[in-house]
Write a structure and sequence with these properties.
Blueprint (H helix, E strand, L loop, with lengths): L2 E3 L11 E3 L14 E3 L24 E3 L12 E7 L8 E6 L4 E5 L9 E2 L12 E3 L8 E3 L19 E7 L2 E5 L5 E5 L3 E4 L15 H6 L54 E3 L4
Antiparallel strand pairs: 1-2, 3-4, 5-6, 5-8, 6-7, 9-14, 10-11, 10-14, 11-12, 12-13, 13-15
Length: 274
Amino acid sequence: MSVRKLKPITPGQRFRVVNGYDAITTDKPEKSLLAPKKRSGGRNSQGKMTMRYIGGGHKKRYRIIDFKREKAGIPAEVKSIEYDPNRTAFIALLNYQDGEKRYIIAQNGLQVGQKLVSGADVAPEIGNSMPLSQIPLGTIISCIELRPGQGAVMARSAGAFAQLMARDGKFATVKLPSGETRLLLLDCNATIGVVSNSDHQLLVSGKAGRSRWLGRRPRTRPVVMNPVDHPMGGGEGKSSGGHPRSRNGIPAKGFRTRSKTKASNKYIIERRKK
């Protein structure tokens, strides 16, 4: 894992920090695991713009990723570590003993040729997926299920990890990347280790054009809008905009909007720190 600072040979390269991609072993994806990815440009099925500031960008193909890891007890060999344009983490191509190939989210320290296996009775080694009931307490985990059999939904982005804190009855206590401490059913699966590409947060894009390549269009600040468009718009000259709030008037910066009667409240032991 390394990052490089480029020489300022153009204005866009001056502050640019790029990924060394040391962990990547091939630049050719597995064709059988590719799927087309249509760009919406922020429009819904009626053609109405529902998400602003989305559109354009480089054409991508989706990599079909196995978030469920349901091939229990079948060993797999890591064939390659690859770049994925659809996420911040790197992905690993697994060759299972029965001949099937699958992509998974790669963990830090995963090596080509390493043997991985998922299931209840496996060793808690990096890249192995197992139920929370079998993982030793204090272990660093990632790619965690919220409901058994659902597939990984938490701690999946580059450098993310959670920690298994305790077990009590049919629940495990897990400290999530946001800082929230939550109860999860012991049957939920998780993968051992930290998600790869932890250098992602150190990258500097260098120029506005790189955002466009990623399909992100320029965002208009609320303060320069008119009052008809946003609560923070309007005013003579350069006005401050008043208290920060969203387009529909809900205050930003830590205003609690979570329902007091939400069913999952009883599973959250401690909310995240601001």
